[in-house]
Amino acid sequence: MAINVSLSVNGQAVSRDVQPNRLLVDFLREELGLTGTHVGCDTSQCGACTIHLDGLPVKSCTMLVVQADGARITTIEGLAPDGDGGDLHPMQEAFRQNHGLQCGFCTPGMVMAGIGIAQRHGLPSNDVIRAELDGNFCRCTGYHNIVKSIAAGAKAMAMTGAKTVAETGGE
Amino acid sequence: MPDDMNQIKGGVHQAVAHDSAARHVSGSAIYVDDIPEPRDLLHAYMGMSDRAHARIKKLDLSEVEAAPGVVSVLSARDIVGENDISPAHTKDEPVFAAEVTEFVGQPLFVVGAETRDQARRAARLAKVDYAELPAITDLDAALAKKATVAPPQELKRGNAAAAIEAAPHRLSGRIRTGGQEHFYLEGQIAMALPGEGDEMRVFSSTQHPSEVQQSVARVLGLADNMVTVETRRMGGAFGGKESQPSLFATVAAMVARDAGRPAKIRPDRDDDMIMTGKRHDFIIDYEVGFDNAGRILGVDYKLASNCGYSADLSAAINGRALFHLDNCYYLPAARMKALPLKTNRPSNTAFRGFGGPQGMAAGERVIDEIAFALGLDPLEVRKRNLYGVGERNETPYGQIVEDNVIPEIIGELEKSADYAARRREIAGFNEKSPYLKKGIALTPVKFGIAFTARHLNQAGALVHVYTDGSIHLNHGGTEMGQGLMTKVAQVVAEEFQVDLEHVVVSAARTDKVPNTSPTAASSGSDLNGKAAQLAARQIKDRLTAFAAEHYEVSADSIEFLPNRVRVGNQEIPFPDLVQQAYMARISLSAAGFYKTPKIHFDFETGQGRPFFYYAYGAAVSEVTIDTLTGEYRVDRVDILHDVGRSLNPALDLGQIEGGFIQGMGWVTSEELVWSDDGRLLTHAPSTYKIPTCGDRPRDFRINLLEGAANREDTIYASKAVGEPPLMLALSVLHALSDAVASVGRHKTCPRLDLPATPEVILAAVARVRGEAQDD
Q1: Who's near B569: CB < 8 A, 6+ residues apart?
Q2: Helix or strand or coil: residue B455?
Q3: Are the Cβ atoms of A101 and B24 closer than 8 angstroms?
Q4: What's the pLDDT tens digit per position in B739-750?
Q5: Which CATH code fits A3-78?
Q6: Number of Cα atoms under 13 Å in the Cβ half of residue B450
Q7: Is 3.40.630.70 the CATH classification of the domain at A90-160?
Q8: CB–CB of A77 and B33 under 8 A?
Q9: ipTM score above 0.95
Q10: Distance (Å) from the C-alpha of residue A70 to the closest C-alpha of chain B?
């Protein structure tokens, strides 16, 4: 008893029949091949699966695809449509420049969460970033460079007025 | 002259970004679960024991076999080769329990199905008839029972009993250190692809591809040359992927071989935490004799470690615990015994520090005890007991500490962190503050670098130079986030004097570099960097000989300059020289091999030189505790750490900071809770608390020791950095201890066990306050 869902993923219209218990993260990874969104803890605590849904960061490992029907989704791949060869989103660039990663497994979720923080707070203080990032685990870095990256990324976003692909409707 | 003619981009000592950074931020870095799934892929899942210790009277898998989508169901009786994945060849660790199950979560069978969901559902349908056996489910019970998984070990120097007896002061006590879950963000995972004939290719998230290769071959009954293991990167490992990945790779390969289809297994996070080993929890009893100045005269340590149900790497972990009881302190007489105890728990395993942190925690506790007994600042007692330079410098295991920089580190850090003034300020604060109390502590670290199993101190590397001048590098080390691939590529770029962008590192593969050691013991860049250097130098020597002959100049007049080669009076771009060499039929590929010199150890006498050198560091931590709730926060941390001449300061700083925070988790919030019947109750991050962003120190200052070239001949005079910084976090424990002690006017040693959770702090505050009132 598959259910038809229609949603926008990284600016592309997607329409599929899915099982009602299909998790959004599995749909993104397995059906759309968007494997940049990672599964860390399976229970929406580590934040490795963070995506944007209608412009807000959400954890995709505990959300059903059917709940996302009609939504506008951006994944890590949708921030820089040309992949790692092309221009990076200012938040991605900030993580790269500030060594805001080690094993990289939490990084896509951190970048997505970081953009959310910047969008809500403009130029967030370190204390705001620390508090806001409590739902994203990193086991490698100790967070220092991640906080630094988000602060730098937010600043760059404020300067460039960066928008994600989904926000611009893919234009 | 353009910049790239003066200095190459990305040579050694430069703070270049991680080689996968651009891929990580864009989500295009491939982990095992991201590899495009092959056609006909099966998903595997394991059925687990529900008893800590029981005879398996009957394992009825008929419902599992009949479940939707199930293709393959395999248990111990289906193993063609050996039912053994013990990493140290102790033959005590089966893939599947056959007759007796020894821990809750022990694998009993594997099911391969069309979807992961089907495999997970089917794995729950087994009917197991157990006859319960007596179980040892915690370390106290194990200590009473004294069943071991490996022989007890002992290190001795002089007559400790007599020295303690004759000392002006004596005291004794006990410290407990808790276990620790690795919580690698990427869980265990493997995918196996059957090839032609008996071939099996395995993608594994492992620190030890060669061991996975050997395990898969042994269980499938194949020769090693039939199995190829590939590891591009791991999403964190921390020791948790040194021996543990064999299980997952093996069962994936079993399903793949049985069904003739590729198979992948990725356990759910909770199951991963339930099934796999963790850091050993220890109970350490100590007795120490010391003089009026607080100098240790003799010490006796008895270590009991919770090894779980099998040996795994416990013998070496117990050994390293013994080797680090001294930490930075000279012990004129010492007796140290380690008892690797068996419990009905998952087999505890490698975790960053590998026993070192547990030993060091006990060593630092003893110092703290002496300070309280004599009413001295613990830092003063630390300084009085430090290894000397040229004297008082022999370890209890006979190695001379030749590279001691710890007095210098402590001196500099004391100054830069303003330790003395802050200690006075804190005393003033505590006078006036009734409920919030502050504490400060400085603790040092000395960590031995080399595998204590001598044969593991070897590495191989493969370097190819292609005719366009681009370079391909492969070595036996694995990438888990530490930046090993970047560092080794920097070494090769430096050797050839080409920009780093011309060097590409490929995945660790057992068919490229064979018989590798695990990427562990902090030795990844020491070993693989040297091997890669030796490979590159062979090719460089051939290019030099070719150029000398071809251009009729002396070899002395040939120099590898940034991105070009000077040959006599002319400069030739590197790719051009390579192309000319190829046309002249010069081999442009080489394998390098390195073995660490100087190390030896006699396990019979407990004497030798197990370590090539030591890495040092020290940290000052300041904390505030709430004496009404036991809650606390870390206000400020200053670190000064010795990485020799850093191969890459950005990566090294990352290791220090990350290691410290992980160590802070071990000493503060990470608490594993088990039920009396041997069930892990904290099997998800909802109940098991690793440090989050808000936990990091409010003020965090990290510096690398300047001008600290390694005295030994290591790769570009650098030092290992993976594990040592974890133990800097003991400064947080001792700062907490200092804060707690203030409620008893610093008369009573708080004797904090690890992890010092808020509950532990609250209880210690009550105890210390009570003892002060009794006085």
Answers
A1: none
A2: helix
A3: yes
A4: 999 999 999 999
A5: 3.10.20.30
A6: 22
A7: no
A8: no
A9: yes
A10: 24
